[in-house]
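Before surveying the methods themselves, it helps to consider a single example record, giving the amino acid sequence and backbone structure tokens:
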Amino acid sequence: MIYRPTIMGEINTDQGLQFIWRVDLGRIPMTDALKKQGVNIDSLMYSACIGGDEEVNHLLISCPYAHAIQEAILSLYGIQKCGLQSVSDLIHYATTWGRCPRLRSRFIAIGYILLWSLWKVRNKRRYRNAFASTSRVVENIKSLTYLWIKYKGKKTLEEWSSPPLSV
């Protein structure tokens, strides 16, 4: 898998790069991984989803909650449904998407922000019992995308009237 430090510089350095790397390897501290290591866990069920175990691909890709957010973000930026089944699929799709390197960099950042945001929502739900609506998470992803690309890129506030993936 290709991890691009220049892209991650748009997000937040080492912490973001390590998170994406660990997610791609399926090595973030979720109940399925902890259970495999012998940690006593009451339930493997993901707290924001009625029907699925808490494992990386379910939490970040296939859970109906995550899928709704993913679809909203992709449609917001004019990207057609791509039938993602795993985090690796998302990373591969983002790193090979389009022909313009600048727009691809922005799309990679959006993908990474999506994963990071879903992880943060999971942690707030699990440890603080706080639930965020899909629309609120989408708005947060839009805000983070704006901030992360703005401070790394040369896009001004006026240029943000169009989506970040427009030329």
Remarks:
- Confidence is low (pLDDT under 50) at residues 1-11.
- Residues 26 and 56 are 6 Å apart (CA to CA).
